[in-house]
Specification:
Layout (H helix, E strand, L loop, with lengths): L1 E5 L3 H7 L1 H9 L3 E6 L5 H7 L2 E4 L9 H5 L1 H12 L3 E5 L1 H14 L3 E5 L4 H4 L3 H13 L5 E4 L2 H9 L8 E3 L23 E5 L8 H14 L4 E5 L12 H10 L3 E2 L6 H6 L3 E4 L8 H8 L4 E4 L14 E4 L4 H12 L3 H18 L2 H16 L8
Parallel strand pairs: 1-2, 1-4, 2-3, 4-5, 5-6, 6-7, 8-9, 8-11, 9-10, 11-12, 12-13
Length: about 375
Amino acid sequence: MRIAIVINKSWNIFNFRLSLVRALLAAGHEVVAIAPEDAYSAKLVAEGCKFVPLPMESKGTNPIKDMLLIRKFLQAYQSVKPDVILQYTIKPNIYGSIAARLAGIPTINNVSGLGTVFIVENLVSKIAMALYRFSFRFPAKVFFQNSDDKALFLERKLVRESITEVIPGSGIDTKKYQPAAQFKRQHPFVFLMVSRALYEKGLVEYVEASKILKAKSPEIRVQLLGAIDEEGNIGIKRTLVEQWAQEGWLEYLGTSDDVASVMHQADCVVLPSYREGTPRTLLEAAAMAKPIVTTNVPGCKETVVDGYNGYLCEVRNGADLAAKMEAVYQLSDAALQAMGQNSRRLAEEKFDEKFVIDRYFAAIEGATGKAARNVS
């Protein structure tokens, strides 16, 4: 079969969906990546994909302008002629679903997080709800990354329950992401947040927690790894991130294509996000046997059993975040190691990517009526 994967960035496919791509290719399918062209597009081609560029603004929130995307998607889908289309992120999910319906091609959508339109209710979010309600009549399957997101879509009558299913995010390759051969506590202690510098990721609260912790234990290291994204009103300005770094509240590490090597040097991974699908960075942390501190919100709370492999904190509460981070810092070496081992156990039992890949193969067979595995 020819299978198209459509996302708002080639980077997203390469970093979060590559295992699925490889599994599809290994089963004998032709995989076509449809996304805006970036530095990762060529890497997808090197993996064996075909690549079709489709420009789109990942952050734009003008529905009238975005409606023009339907034509772009339709042209791409009619040109590629895939047997089935796997769609991720808001714009492919909405406008791509309409285009696929017009082209007569079945789709499988993945709601990988609800984003700003569900966190902030305004005119744009109301329009987005209406668009979801219309476009989600068409997919053969809609995957959600946590049960809260699915429940919200059902409550607002945005999708039929019969086509929905919950899977653990993109899953995690527990063979690739392994704990260090030997446990080692860092001196000084290191907290790491892996995220773009966005308000909704809880970076402001992370800095507030840093100030509280460093007032008691100034030697603690509080790090951020991730891109600065100044688009729209959701990104934190580079000047503010640099100011926090200069004042000593935050070590900004920039970006890296090897997150695992940075994570190995951390004692605890923190993500104080306001809402997520299932955060890939926390799945990586769990697989690498790191204790986790995250918010008690949909998506994040699925990665932590409170007190077992980390702690859950209140959302938008820097003081509570500091208290939970301090609780990890105060653990003995043995207790810190045990909490990390519990994270690894959770990754193996709940988040292994094999489960996600199996559900995609089953969904492809259901959408197309064709066998998806053992294709010659």
